[in-house]
Amino acid sequence: MLTQPLADAIAEAEHVVAAAPHIRGEQDLVEGYDYLAGGIRASIQMAWAYDRDFPYFVRSTGPYTKMGLDNPDTLYFHAWLRDDAEYVVTGRRGSTTDLSFQILDGSYSPVNVPGSLAAFDDREIDIGPDGDFEIRFGPGLSGRNAFSLAPGSAMLVVREVFSDWAAERPGMLRIHRADRLGAAPPSLTQENLTRRYAVAGKMLVGRIRTFLAFAERFYLHLPVNTLTAPRLTPGGLATQYSSAGHYELSDDQAMVVTVPVSDAPYQGLQLGTMWYVSLDYINHQTSLTVPQARVDPDGLIRYVISERDPGVANWIERTGHDRGYVQLRWQRLSRALTAADGPRVDVVAVDDLPKQLPYYEPIDPAVWRDRIAARQAATAARMLG
Asked: Which pLDDT score, from 0 to 100, does residue 385 have?
């Protein structure tokens, strides 16, 4: 049967989800099955977009296709490549805080994400006064707006990062193989479809196994309710540092993360579930960038992670998740970060927050609803961009 490889892979992936070591109850399992559904959608999309001769950019992750602790502030795009061909990327720079490019190889495994072969942001390319640009990728290319494809190059990933959700607007991207412009791909065949169903199944099982192992390897060995000092983010991103950890809190506890506002153009904090994906960032405040956060008079941001509403502007909602991941990111950096740029973590009782926070200031419930409404509107506009 044509779809049998995908059906077998879905069954295997369901077993992997059901056997995940972090599952403690029904809610964990339900969220795992929802994560599986997103993986199925994403894997089918990736398999059908797998055309290295007539590539196009597709959304790598979104609200319903989450993976790899997706950043709520980022639009992710990818296109497939051959390492022996030349490609042309044309675009128009939007007003977002960061636009970065990365070339990955195809080395998926249960403990590794693909290796990074090159990474840079738009400061390394010439952009016209109207925001238009053209970049070429190919074997042996060099010079301004030209980048060499190393052996094994398989995917071009583009990240567009928003700091101010309401004010910033996305740009435009297009890719084509240089010697295929004006031509057309061959018609579909039974063999093509059979291969795509098999590829979709392989991608599905691979991504679920990979990111469960990745999270365990890079997070769960750390002491609970702590965050690391800022460090270069694993995976080869050119100008990103991160601070990572995992939390476990009772409903009466709050994790206060205190961090200086840096000179990085982008700085943000988010929570993730034990499935290593973002929490609902549309309808709940589970992440904050600097423009979205309240900065105290001493230049520090004090995030309050808790289940109970602490009544402050920087409440990071757990949405019923007593365990999960915490990640801070700094992007578009022009210097190395040190421990002094990083976070301090304190676990306190929610009832003690008025005494523990040096600039405690309650937020009116109507103002809080306005904050959530603004998130909903900005996310809807961004996802249509």
From this structure: 53
Where are any strands of DSSP class E within the chain? 58-61, 74-80, 87-92, 98-104, 116-121, 132-138, 146-148, 155-161, 172-177, 231-232, 240-248, 253-260, 266-272, 287-289, 300-306, 315-317, 323-331, 344-349
Instruction: Please give the average per-residue pLDDT across 271-284, as a whole number.
Output: 98
How long a stretch of residues is the chain? 385
**Of 102-111, 181-190, 265-274, minimum mean pLDDT range:** 102-111
Q: At what angle do helices 26-48 and 4-18 cross, to 10 degrees?
A: 150
CA angle 64, 70, 318 (to 5 degrees): 85
252: its two tokens: 């009466």
φ/ψ of 242, rounded to 5, equals -145, 155
Strand order in the sheet with 58-61: 58-61, 74-80, 155-161, 98-104, 116-121
Are 264 and 356 contacting, i.e. CB atoms less than 8 angstroms apart?
no
Q: What angle do CA 267, 270, 273 make, to 5 degrees?
A: 155
> What pLDDT, on a 0 to 100 scale, did the predictor assign at position 238?
73
User: Are the C-beta atoms of residues 121 and 68 closer than 8 Å to each other?
Assistant: no
Residue 373: phi and psi, rounded to 5, are -60, -40
Report the candidate in 215, 192, 288 with the shortest Cα–Cα distance to residue 21: 215
Strands 74-80 and 155-161: antiparallel
Closest CA to 120 of 338, 332, 330, 336: 332
Query: How, if at all, do strands 266-272 and 323-331 pair?
Result: antiparallel
Tokens linked to 36: 């599986």
State how far the Cα of 262 lies from the Cα of 332, in Å rounded to an integer.
11
CB 322 within 8 A of CB 307: yes
Q: Are 352 and 251 in contact (CB under 8 A)?
A: no
The residues that bridge with 323 in the sheet, in sequence order, are 248
Please tell me the pTM assigned to this model. 0.94
- Predicted pLDDT at 97: 97
Taking only the tens place, the pLDDT of each residue in 310-351 is 999 999 999 999 999 999 999 999 899 999 999 999 999 999
Strand duo 231-232 + 240-248: pairing: antiparallel
